[in-house]
Amino acid sequence: MIAVLDHRTTAYPSTSASAGAPLRRTVVLAIFAAWTLFSVYVYSRYSQLGDAQAYLTGEYGEYAQGRTLLITRVASGLRAMLGADLLVHLAFSMFAASGVCYLIAQGDIRGRYRWPLLAILLNPNFGVWASVTGRESIFVGLLAYFMGAVLGHHRRHRIAHVLIAPLCVAGMIYIRAPFGIGIALFYLVYLLYAWGPRLRLSIGVQAVFFLALATLALAFAWPYIDGYISNEILPLAQSYFTVASTTTRTWVDLHTAGDLLAGLWWILPLSLIGPTPAEVLARPVMLPFLLAGLVVFGLLLHSIYVAMFKAPRGPTRGILLLGWLPAMLVILVSYAPFGIYNPGSGIRYASCFLLFVIFPALLVRAAAHAGTTTRDTGDGSISRTTMRAS
Length: 390
Known about the structure:
Layout: E1 3-11, H1 14-19, H2 25-46, H3 51-57, H4 66-82, H5 85-107, H6 114-121, H7 124-130, H8 135-156, H9 159-175, H10 177-195, H11 203-240, H12 257-262, H13 264-273, H14 277-282, H15 287-310, H16 315-341, H17 343-350, H18 354-357, H19 359-368, E2 372-376, E3 381-389
Antiparallel strand pairs: 1-3, 2-3
Helix pairs in contact: 2-5, 2-7, 3-4, 4-5, 5-8, 8-9, 8-19, 9-10, 10-16, 11-16, 13-16, 15-16, 15-19, 16-17
């Protein structure tokens, strides 16, 4: 079997060329820069940038967590070198933006596949914290590079993508362990489909197998998980945002992991959406975040629909249903206590994983053009280079 390069250049009408145009990197860089300016000069007037300012001024002492000290030293070093807080924020913002540009290039995001990504990039719940100094912008950049590596590998199976992805996973686990672990679980399933044996089994049979394996693993790990949620996560979420915060929900009362899991049917949607209409009436400044939360929740439902009904049968659907969907559940469950106790501050945590919400549409795009690279020839036509077997 010989791989043959098949070069095809097709001229499209101007409307078709525009509809299939890629999302330009300059647009992405401009969006992140605009969010940095908005966060520093507008958002900070209504709510504190909190950790971002603490990183810049070195307020975290030597007894802080290692990841906190690392970002503090990076921010302090950049501040000493650049001389202005805004430039430090822009440096962190451009790292996140560079990851998104890599994601767009590797996934060849164009045409109708641009709108889910734009819906996230233009979302305040994402933009405010992904564009300033902090763990969030670092996590967003690592997640974007990881997603780009996975999409690139799904399309062209290059070894460089295999090297980049694990490094990003390690960095995400270091920065925010619960979210990083969810991403790691997804990557494990992806590798099983990419490199594992080809099993002629339906998705349903594979799901039963994966569910049985997950149940067995959970049975062994549950005492540790239960203790971690009940003794560390829930007390932290209940007390962390209550200091001088008018958005804390004092009516939420979760004491055990069982309380959290039993209430997921209402905790997950509400924590992801953010403020309720009643809370917006009491504090109108929260209205943009309510609308932004509704967009995020709608994108999550759309992604689940894509994974279940629009993804092509075979590895792509398996990766989404058995990899992305469980990973997304792990991430959302770990985020829910913070989002439900304080929607105003919870958006800082949510900004880390919002890019991952739209992954199904991007993977479907990559699967549809696997082995194909496209480029704009500059004269209104699109050049396609396709690897085909003969």
